[in-house]
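Q: Convert this sequence to structure tokens.
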Amino acid sequence: MKNLLRLAYALPVDAPDALLIGRVWVDGPEGSGPVLALVTASDVLDLSSVAATASQLLELPDVVKAVRAAAPFLPRLADTAEVLANSAADMRKPQLPWLLAPCDLQAIKAAGVTFVASMLERVIEEQARGDASKAEAVRRAVIGVIGDNLSSIKPGSPEAAKLKEVLIAQGVWSQYLEVGIGPDAEIFTKSQPLSAVGTGAEVGLHPHSHWNNPEPEVVLAVNSRGEVQGAALGNDVNLRDFEGRSALLLGKAKDNNASCAIGPFIRLFDEYFTLDHMRRSELTMTVSGPEGFEMEGGSSLSKISRDPLDLVAQAIGENHQYPDGFMLFLGTMFAPTQDRHGPGQGFTHVVGDVVTVATPQLGSLVNRVTTSDKAAPWTFGIAALMQSLARRGLL
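A:
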């Protein structure tokens, strides 16, 4: 994994033009704790004089202007290449800085069933009741009834309502089709503030899961006013068997220790990287298994069925506020069906898989797979963050 945590892989291809916001764990005279940072191709710079937390930074009226004005005067924390290398969980030197997830106090939310391909796979999970061995037969049956091209259907449109009537009459309507082409998007809580892991860390599967997969996604950084300030990469680890057995297991399927990776940085929107650039993102994903298994896939954000700003508007507004902002996973079209353990078994993770999610303008996010009971326990919460900031005189 350490070979993937290098500048050439981790940083955007246009790194000199990118405003990259990260968080690093630092051992200092005031004790250990996270430090907000501006990351360049050569240096990791302390942003604490601008804002104490990532959440606070994104609340500034003109965050790009504030960061650019402060950049020449920021104290240097470390060399970027060294921090990246030290972020590998299995080779970390505790006395040196390493990267954390770039968000902190923000709620971590996710939009589900936002691509046709993954929507069909959710229907298949539901019909198979979470049993991977039944997935292929169910897939053929479902596609035989509803087809495999629903991309022309606009969610919430009159055409979608007519299709719903037809599918109900045929007995194949699903809760996943409801949020996939209905008026209301699925917005759920992926995990808790400060619980996301960063690049180089291990991601965790529930130890009782036997059918699961990575989910490469773009993650929006949104402030309390609903303004999208930037974007990062994410891996919304998915337990297909748990969620397939019952939608009421969504919390157990999604919110486990280390089940959410975000990073390596939040790239701020500016003249070099805009929302429209992000809308055209082409995500690639590779899985390299300890037994030599290799899988490649991708997710094109241009094929999303709901515009990202529509998803933001469904997450925040008169009915729901986020005073510290939120991170929003936008969903994925990646739904692997490649057989790994035998014909008809499809794909599932094994411990030791290395997952890389990448796109040119956001860099790459790299994590190794373990089980949630073996991943590093989450011990640094909001109270610990407040204490750390107080020791550094930032409260």
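The chain has a mean pLDDT of 89.
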